[in-house]
Ubiquitin carboxyl-terminal hydrolase
Amino acid sequence: MNSTLLLILVIIKWNGEKYNVPVDLSQPGLVLKTQIFSLTGVAPERQKIMVKGGVLKDDTDLNTLKLKENQQLMMMGTVEALKEPQEKPVFLEDLSEAQISKALNIPAGLVNLGNTCYLNSTLQCLRAVTELPTAVEKTGINISSNNQQNFSVSMNALFKELDKSGQAVHPVMFVQLLRTLYPQFAERDRNGFMQQDAEECWGQIVHVLDETVNGLTRNGESNKSKKFVEQFMTVETIVETKCDDAPAEPPSVSMETTNKLRVNIGAVSTYMVSEIGNGLIEKIEKNSPTLGRNAIFTKTSKISRLPRYLTINFVRFQWKAQEQIKAKILKRVQFPFELDMVPFCTPELTAKLQPAKQRLKEIADRKADEKIENAQEMAVDEAPKDQKALLEAIGVDSSLIEDPGVNPSGQYDLVAVLTHVGRGANSGHYIGWVKQGGHWWKFDDDKVSQIKEEDITKLEGGGDWHTAYMCLYKSRDLE
Ligand SMILES: *[C@@H]1O[C@H](CO)[C@@H](O)[C@H](O)[C@H]1NC(C)=O
Ligand SMILES: *[C@@H]1O[C@H](CO)[C@@H](O)[C@H](O)[C@H]1NC(C)=O
Ligand SMILES: *[C@@H]1O[C@H](CO)[C@@H](O)[C@H](O)[C@H]1NC(C)=O
Ligand SMILES: *[C@@H]1O[C@H](CO)[C@@H](O)[C@H](O)[C@H]1NC(C)=O
C-alpha cells in the first residue's frame, strides 16, 4: 500500500513524431494509452504499443515492463475520423428497469477505467466533508418516490460501505441515479458511457445535496430551517458595484452566495491566493442612471461569511469554438497547504475572526516553544473541551457561535485535491487525493495508496502530469 509516485519519462514514436510521456508505473496500460490518446488522437483501442513480450494490453501492470527513463516505444495506429453516431443516443430514463440493468452490465474494465473516474474522484474528495453522513441520516430521508432523495440516500449508503469494507465498492445505484437526474452523464459514444467533467459532476452532486439534506444544530441534530450545503459549504459575499466614470453616483450593494471560488489561470505563474483576491474585483459594463449611457463599473466583493469547507476551482478548461473542444490550460497553479482567508473578508467579519485566529496562533507558537523547552502550563491549556464553550471562552462573536457550519477563524487546511491528466475535460483521467487520519491517500478508482505530503505539491501543474483542478479546504480545528 505504501507506494509513492513512480514516474518515468518514455518517448512514444508514432507516425514519424516523438512524444514525451510521463508514465506512472503504478498504473495499468490503459492509463498510458489514454495519455497517448490525448497527445495523438489515436483511440486507445486502436493503439498497438510494442513492449517486451508483445503488444501492451489494457490491464498490463506498467511496473512489470521494466521501462527505462527515456526508453523509446513504437506505437502503431491511426486516428479514426469522427463518424456520426450510428444510433441516436439512448438515455436511461427512456429504458425499462431490465434494460437499465443490462446497460450497466457493460464489461467492468471499461466502465471503471475509462468512464467513471470523474465520479469516483469527486466522491472520494467529498468524503472529506465528514459531517455529511450525519446530516443525511438526521434529515431522515428515505428511499422514496423522489429521485433527488434517493440520490442522497444512496450516496450515504455508498460512503458507509466505503468506510466499512475498505474495499472497492461498485456504486451502481448511485451512478444510475446520477445519470437519471442529469442525462448528460448518460452520454454515450461507441465505447459506452463517455468521460465527463469532474467539476460539473461535483457541482451537480452539491446541488442535489443542497436540495435534499437539512442542516445541523451545534449538538449534531437536524435543523429543518437550514440546508446542510448552505451551512457547511457556502461562501457569502457583499458586492459593491461602483461606476468608474461617475464617482458621485452612489454604489449599489448586494449579497451573493457561492459554493466554490473560481481561480483563473494567468499567463505566467499563478498563485492561488493572489488569484482569489484578483477574482473578487471585476469590471462590468452596464447602464449608468446618472450618465444615461452604458459605462464601466467596478464590482468589488468582500467575503461576509466563510463556511467550514471551502471549494476552490482552477479554471483549467476553455471552450474553443473553432475546434469544438474544451481545451486545457496546463500551466502551474501554486496552492498552499494552509490558507488564511481573512485578507478577503469585510471589515466586520475580519474583526469577528480575530479571537479564534489569535487562539490558533497561540497554539502554533506554543507548539513551537514546546519543542525548545518543556514550557510551563499556559492559560490556553485550561480551555473547555466542548467547542461551543471553547468559542465562548475565547470571546468569539455570538453570531459565529450560533452558526455550526461556519469557519470562526478564517484559517483553513487543505484536505482534498482532485486532479486531471490529459488534454480535454471529456477525456483523460481523474484522481482524488485526500487527507484521512493524518495521511494523504491517492484514490485512483479502485486502487488506493498512501502517499507523501510532498507528492501533493507535484500536482501544481505545468506539464503533462496530474494537474490540480479542484481543491477542498477545511476549517482548522481549535483546541
Ligand atoms: C470507481 O468506479 C468503478 C466503476 O463504477 C467501480 O468499479 C469502482 O469500485 C469505483 N471505485 C471506488 C473506490 O468507488
Ligand atoms: C422515513 O421512514 C421512517 C420509518 O419508516 C419514518 O419514521 C420517517 O418519517 C421517514 N422520513 C421521511 C422524511 O419521510
Ligand atoms: C427510489 O428507490 C426505490 C428503491 O430502490 C425505488 O423503489 C423508487 O422507485 C426510487 N424512486 C425513483 C423516483 O426512482
Ligand atoms: C436552526 O436554524 C435557524 C436558521 O438559521 C436558526 O435560527 C435556529 O436557531 C437553528 N436551530 C437550532 C436549534 O440551532
Notes: The mean pLDDT is 81. Residues 143, 145, 147, 150 surround 2-acetamido-2-deoxy-beta-D-glucopyranose (ligand 3) (CB under 6 Å).
